[in-house]
Amino acid sequence: MSIEVKDLTKIYGAQKAIDNISFSIDKGEIVGFLGPNGAGKSTTMKIITGYLQQDGGEAFVSGTNVKAHPMVTKRKIGYLPEANPLYYDMYVKEYLNFVADVHELNDQRSTTINKIIDLVGLTPECKKKIGQLSKGYKQRVGLAAALIHDPEVLILDEPTSGLDPNQIIEIREVIKNLGKNKTVLFSSHILQEVEAICDRVIIINKGKIVADDKLSNLQNTDKSNHVVIVQFKENVDEATIKNLKEINSAQQLASGKWELETANSESVRRQLLELALQNNLNIVSLQSQNQSLEDVFRALTN
Q: Are residues 166 and 279 both part of a single domain?
């Protein structure tokens, strides 16, 4: 396992920022790390990266104890913190050369830096001072710095903060490609980004892990909140729709189009097909919708 956390605890005064949490992440996984503000996400990430020391438990990166061997583990980690620390008076390539010095990179340094600049989409702005860049491009500089030494593990705290929609899509693709052969722990308040990038989600609330599962499983947790949307070619009246069994509510979205809430979507889908056959109706589309990640998040953290 590339990241392993065992019974991790961090206390600030009388408050437990993280309370005896455990999880592990394998190589090739991109895991979304979610929680409300103050839930313990950034504290956990800082402990894994060696920026903070825990009060209890252990953290391992590629099998190495972070607290016992902080320099060894830091060489294996690329970290983009939420507050992206940059030297605004330095030029982009100058700063990346400085980061390369920190990591003692010597072989093909210029080629590596140019490759990373191209990877994160910094090429149009690479000859400017960092202070002259927009917030989105500053975020790309931070991501480039996290990648410069080709780390085994990436810890990304709000990596798409400040990016416009087009930039978000570009960085999303970068992260997805990196996740094929690296371990990525990815935190974001933009839940649509997590849905687009991650297969697995860990949700933390008040210092405790309240969910750790595949996204698809979490979205199927509430069996009473399935939605079926059906579009008939013909107009179908309300009485016919409400005559179906196991319908909790029905809302007409347009002529012939209905949104049905049910605890048993498979049964409702079968009934709709039977209804169409018996009444010579044509179904244009029929789809089921599970809970959104936002629904899951709110249910677990309210």
A: no
